[in-house]
Amino acid sequence: MGKSFQLGLNTESLSKRKKDFGEYSIAELKEYLVYLEHLGYRESHYKTALYSKYAQPLIPIIMMMLAMPMGFQFGRRGVFYGVAAGLGAGLVFYGLFELFKGFGSSGLLTPLSAGWAVVSVFGFIALYRFINLE
Known about the structure:
By secondary structure, the chain is mainly alpha-helical. The chain has helices at residues 11-15, 26-39, 44-55, 59-73, 79-106, 111-131.
């Protein structure tokens, strides 16, 4: 009745938790994707996370270029209206970015388009509005 089994685990391996794919660095994601491809897996979760990590440094620049023209555009209505419109555009951007990441993770979109589609579309809109600022 008092049988014991050797599982080959130590306390360190029991305390480790699995990382979420959003917690990996770019180098770790690349290395893990090479490992998965070597095993023959096509993993869209990690590829989408990699491409979205490449796009994330552009997000603050896009937000700034999108919100600045809105602050100056609504002169008669007041600055508050422009700030609220900029905040609304930022929330729409963030919601679409996360939605497209979910589409890429589930395989509905290719990982490249899921990571870059919203960033590039809003980037072009922000650049156009920033250039045509009166």
